[in-house]
């Protein structure tokens, strides 16, 4: 998944990337894994229905949502 291997830079809104990188630099590489897990957990009910390619398409479709920053902020605060 490109969004994980590039530490989210090419796949997510700029504001989200700034926050993610700030936390990564402060907390280290474990943060990236926690963040990826939080994103997967947020969409667990949808993702469980999909095959790998469909899950990839799902991620590609939601990345531009305006509400994504708020959703991830809420999810990561509980992990």
Number of strands: 0
Shape by Cα distribution: globular
Roughly what percent helix? over 70%
**What class, by secondary structure content?**
mainly alpha
Percentage of residues in strands? under 5%
Count helical runs. 6
Salient structural properties:
about 80 residues; about 70% helix; mainly alpha; 6 helices
Structure described in brief:
The protein is mainly alpha-helical and 79 residues long. The protein has helices spanning 2-5, 14-27, 29-42, 44-47, 52-62, 68-77.
Task: Give the SSE map.
Elements: H1 2-5, H2 14-27, H3 29-42, H4 44-47, H5 52-62, H6 68-77
Protein model, in words:
This protein is mostly helical and 79 residues long. Helix content is 72%, strand content 0%. It has six helices and no strands. It has helices at 2-5, 14-27, 29-42, 44-47, 52-62, 68-77. α2 (14-27) crosses α3 (29-42) and α3 (29-42) packs across α6.
